Amino acid sequence: MPARVITVTSGKGGVGKTTATANISAAMAANGHKVVCIDADIGLRNLDVVLGLENRIVYDLVDVVEGRCRLRQAMIRDKRLPELYLIPAAQTRDKSSVSPSDMVRLCNELREEHDYIVIDSPAGIERGFRNALAPADVVVVVTNPEISAVRDADRIIGLVESEEKGPTRLVLNRIKPAMVRRGEMLSTEDVLELLAVELIGLVPDDEAVVVSTNRGLPIALDGKSKAGQAFRNIARRLNGEQVDFMNLDENSSFLGRLKGLIRPGGN
Amino acid sequence: MTVLVQIKGIREGLLVTVGEGEWDQAHQALLDQLDEQAAFLQGARLALDLGNHALKAAELGKLRSDISEREMTLWAVLSNSPTTEQTAQTLGLATRIGKPQPEYPAARPETVLQAGEYAILVHRTLRSGFSLNHAGHVVVLGDVNPGAQVIASGNVLVWGHLRGMVHAGAEGDETAVVCALDLSPTQLRIAGHISMTPQRRGKPQPEMARLNDGQVVAENWDPKKSR
């Protein structure tokens, strides 16, 4: 089966695109899929650091595009998951070194031998975003429960629609259930009402994510973390499985839990 | 049937006029013409007059990359078709050039409506960053999200949440109104008057905003009241 290309994007910076890319890829690979993740953030690469593969980089995306190496040579195999590969971004160049058609060509070459290609898009709506979007079969928009992040997500969804890409799926990252309960943070329902796209993941705010990112060990491989569980669920949903949404709010009432079960699936 | 393609110089660069016909043929004719004069056109800034061709994003996007492959830049698209105009706007292309638009004597639809009374129906949600400009009335079946804007010289009706910026009567019509099922725009303008939406209490209700003694006033929609 040829691979599906999943582009992870957000518009706003710092909402957790790279963390989501690393963890979704790792969770898919742990489930036995062949996964390549591509860092499209040329000039500000991070995905290699989050995956803990920084010191293995010899060739990068721009080297492949400009023909200085073969595709295989730029693919770094993950240290724990043999089915996970990374194509890192170049650090010393900028977004204009790669064109959208280069990305399409590259992904077509990778499609035959893999199950999933996950692209980490840079923040913004310029060339880097266009590069990441061009080959996409599915667009995963990551946002936080904050007005500014939701506004940017809305803009991105509009751009994806106008390029006739998609379907678009939403990941709501860094939810603080206690704050939502006190009415101090946008709730999942508030965000979905505005964005009106299908939800594919709810990720709670978790300090362990920072630790795992710094160590280069994706949290999705940590069986105890709630955020890790959330990312594993996203990977399974992207694979077409039906997975119930977790209850993030442990202290909520029975009724609140019931509502949580009913609402998130709706669009 | 061959499609006529004309290139002429204007103050802003070059204006390429594409004649009537099937889009596939027109597209090809345009590219042939550009290839023929490639040496002369290299590095040129092109404005395209597409007449009545209605283009979707994929088609216009393809055309834009075809043109940039030939080392030319597409910066503006002129069209009689609202579809093409909208597409061009979403792709970030200008839809007007500095001087009055070329005339299309044959292209204007026969109509009994007065100028400015054309209405367009937009059956989708306008998301942040999208701007809809129309010389006439605008009806949106969907939401207008924060960060989106609707500017109309006539009235604006939104069958959904109106949370973006809306400007009715943009050419000075003080009788223009704005109606929405949930009227909570970030800013509401009628003709030259600007107002902000007060904080809403309770459930949203259908409302209509109009000018009353130079003040923007919003009233609940009351189906029993005769109008």
Task: Outline the fold blueprint.
The complex is a heterodimer of chains A (267) and B (227).
Chain A: E1 4-9, H1 17-30, E2 35-39, H2 47-50, H3 61-65, H4 71-74, E3 76-77, E4 84-87, H5 100-111, E5 116-120, H6 127-133, E6 138-143, H7 147-162, E7 168-175, H8 177-181, H9 188-195, E8 198-204, H10 207-215, H11 226-238, H12 254-262
Chain B: E1 5-10, E2 13-18, H1 23-36, H2 38-41, E3 45-49, H3 57-69, E4 73-78, H4 82-90, E5 119-122, E6 131-134, E7 137-141, E8 149-152, E9 156-162, E10 165-168, E11 178-183, E12 187-190, E13 193-195, E14 207-212, E15 215-220
Parallel strand pairs in B: 2-3, 3-4, 5-7, 6-8, 7-9, 8-10, 9-11, 10-12
Antiparallel strand pairs in B: 1-2, 11-14, 12-13, 14-15
Can you summarize this structure?
Chain A is an alpha/beta fold and 267 residues long. Chain A contains twelve helices and eight strands. Chain A is globular.
**Count of helix runs of chain B:** 4
* Helix-strand makeup class of chain B: alpha/beta
Based on the coordinates given, report the CATH architecture of chain A: 3-Layer(aba) Sandwich
Terminal Cα span of chain A: 29 Å
CATH fold group of the largest domain in chain B: Pectate Lyase C-like
What kind of oligomer do you see?
Answer: heterodimer
Could you explain how this protein is built, in words?
The complex is a heterodimer of chains A (267) and B (227). Chain A is an alpha/beta fold and 267 residues long. In chain A, helix 1 (17-30) packs across helix 11 and helix 5 packs parallel to helix 6. Chain A has an eight-stranded mixed beta sheet with strand order 3-4-2-5-1-6-7-8, with helices on both faces. Chain A has a single domain, classed as Rossmann fold, CATH 3.40.50.300. Chain A has helices at residues 17-30, 47-50, 61-65, 71-74, 100-111, 127-133, 147-162, 177-181, 188-195, 207-215, 226-238, 254-262, and strands at residues 4-9, 35-39, 76-77, 84-87, 116-120, 138-143, 168-175, 198-204. Chain B folds into two domains: 5-90, Transcription Regulator spoIIAA (2-Layer Sandwich), CATH 3.30.750; 119-220, Pectate Lyase C-like. Chain B contains four helices and 15 strands. In chain B, the strands form three sheets. In chain B, strands 5-7-9-11-14-15 form a six-stranded mixed beta sheet, with no helix packed on it. A five-stranded mixed beta sheet of chain B has the order 6-8-10-12-13. Chain B is elongated and about 65 Å long. In chain B, 32% of the residues are buried. Mean pLDDT of chain B is 83; it is low at 99-113. Chain A binds chain B through residues 100-101, 125, 151-152, 154-155, 157-159, 161-164, 194, 196, and chain B through 56-58, 61, 65, 87, 90-91, 125-130, 143, 145-148, 163.
